[in-house]
Amino acid sequence: MTAYVLVAGGHMGGWLWQDVVDRLRERGAEAYAATLTGLGDRRHLAGPETDLETHIEDLVQLIDHLDAPEVVLVAHCHGSFPALGAADRRPERVSRIVYVSAPLPMDGFSVHGLVDAFEPDPAVRDGWRQRAEGAEDGWRIPPLSLDAVQGWNNTAGVSADALARLARLASPQPLGALTQPLRLSGATAKLPSTGVFCTGTGMNIAMVESLVRSGEPRFQVLAEPHVGFFELDTGHWPMLSVPDELAGVLLRAAADEGQRVTA
Fold it and tell me: Which positions fall inside the AB hydrolase-1 domain (predicted)?
């Protein structure tokens, strides 16, 4: 039996996934929402030493303590970095990674490094840099205000109550988890993966096709046969706006469904 391990992005804990976990379990799947050190109800465990390796180890330990022989890792936003790091440490246990409205991590890059290198909008790059420079005590980034969440990340379809809860439960983000580079051994090079694009954010499969056609070497992996894609007509928070549809997509992804892109 396959178990789903769901990983939230910055400032968020496992609580973010509860509706999706419930729906996966209703459909007979085994599902667990991870809460990384320093986030959610584990925020009191954060310290200056909390970094990406801490979060990778959180997931490795969770995988090691599951009886299911195979795990599908589901990562939202930059939760993709610790998820891929954990898959690299336990490639024999992870059958697939599903990236939900998430960046594709690259070996040698941190979250901030990826933004600096590939984000075309200088205002966005400056925003990330300023928040890091303004970290409390030099290591703790305060959560975004509700107005900022609505401005930075499309919240289409999310109810007012859910938005208020998101703002209330958001926790400070340990800076080291965003600035420590991801180091990979190459064990996940052929690991099946699925990208779930939330079209309300402006991302879609057509953009992937365009990137592959550009011939840029780093994008050619997106045309490999073990990589599939889905689209959801919603904003950046599908676990809050369309949990039924997202649960269905996760089940289909685990069954190796999804649109392929060809070079």
Answer: 5-247
Taking the C-alpha atoms of residue 239 and residue 236, their distance in angstroms, rounded to an integer, is: 9
What mean pLDDT comes out for the span 39-55? Answer: 97
Tell me the C-alpha distance between 167 and 245, whole Å. 23
Would you report the helix, strand and coil content of the chain in percent, each value rounded to 5? 45, 15, 35
**By the 8 A CB rule, do 218 and 106 touch?**
yes
Question: Would you say residue 235 has pLDDT above 70?
Answer: yes
Amino acid letter, residue 6 = L
Angle between helices 18-26 and 243-254 (to 10 degrees): 60
Say if CB 249 and CB 230 are below 8 A apart: yes
Query: Inter-axis angle of helices 52-64 and 80-89, to 10 degrees?
Result: 60
Residue 17: pLDDT above 90?
Answer: yes
Q: Give the distance from CA 58 to its chain's centroid.
A: 15
Give the pair of three-digit tokens for residue 86.
Answer: 């954990």
Helices (H) and strands (E) in the chain, counts: 11, 8
* pLDDT exceeds cutoff 70 at 143: yes
Cα–Cα distance for residue pair 253/72, rounded to 1 Å: 9
- Look up the pTM and report it: 0.96
